[in-house]
Design a protein that fits this description.
Elements: E1 9-14, H1 18-31, E2 34-39, H2 42-52, E3 57-61, H3 70-79, E4 85-89, H4 94-102, E5 108-110, H5 115-126, H6 134-137, H7 140-150, H8 153-163, H9 168-175, H10 179-192, H11 198-207
Parallel strand pairs: 1-2, 1-3, 3-4, 4-5
Helix pairs in contact: 2-3, 4-7, 8-10, 9-10
Amino acid sequence: MNNALNGKIRILVADDHDMILEMIEMFLAQTGDFEIHTALSLTGALDEIKQNGAFDVVLLDFIMPGMKGVLGLEKAIKANDGKPVAIITGNPSGRNVNDIVSAGAAGIVLKTTPMRTLANALRFMAAGEQYIPREVTIDREQALDDANALLSRKESEVLSHLVEGLSNREIGEALKLAEPTIKMHVRSICAKLEAKNRTQAVLRSKELGLY
């Protein structure tokens, strides 16, 4: 299941909340079959991988310093030498779930997940399986259908990154589009959602249940 010399599953958990890290580390340490490392940011996680080699599973908070949505996930997947990288998050939208899965995540763990379930999910992913809890997949397709009915596919992709707080330049880099093109899509999104600016567009999309 893993390559650690001590036979334990090597886990790296990155989250900018100390309490969450402490709770996870304390519980996993008690199980006896995990070696746990922690970090407070994506940069810290990448440093841990560089210093200690690829981990059996890397678990990243979706919203923490350095992540920028799936861009951070993709960096970690590349750095972890093909081994599983998963996301831990609160209440992801259907669009975010789609983006996370499409980017190659080994799984999605909710922050409300019981610790025993978290341990089993980590073992599952370390074995090469993908872990997506049932509650995450419910209404996922409906959310995507609702977004696509109102917005074009590209506008939906741009909006998903607006929700993550990315700038026009960062969205352009993520979608491989020029910044003026992103600005055009943002204007179109605002018009269709009857919003005065990008902030209102994000709020309006949540009111409509798109995210």
